Amino acid sequence: MANLTIGALAREAGVGVETVRFYQRKGLVAQPPRAGGIRRYDERDVTRIRFVKRAQAAGFTLAEITELIALDATDDRARARTLAQARIT
User: Which of 28, 46, 48, 76 has the fewest CB atoms below 10 angstroms from its CB?
Assistant: First the structure.
């Protein structure tokens, strides 16, 4: 259920509101439609932002993170391993 405002989403994910907006502009987090004038987010958005932050901490670029997110929707595990292996080296 989508019940988090952008402020609550940011708090839950451990980032600032501007970080959420930045990730939305970069296409890393979807921007839901307004319902009653307010955008509502859910736990999947919290999980996505936490993933992005962990990947950044591991040294992945935003472009690589975008690719990892896209790969998650596919069965191309070999490409995901290649990206991870490149980061380890």
Answer: 76
Distance between CA 37 and CA 82 in Å, rounded?
A: 43
Q: How far apart are CA 15 and CA 6, in angstroms?
A: 11
Determine the pLDDT at residue 1: 60
Question: Apex CA 57: angle with CA 53 and CA 83, to 5°?
Answer: 95
Are the C-beta atoms of 10 and 20 separated by less than 8 Å? Answer: yes
Structure-token pair, residue 66: 């975008």
Is the CB of residue 26 less than 8 Å from the CB of residue 63?
A: no
Helix (H) / strand (E) element for 24: namely: helix 17-25
Here the tokens at position 69 are: 């997110």
CA distance 85 to 64: 12
Structure confidence at residue 73 as a pLDDT band (50, 70, 90): confident
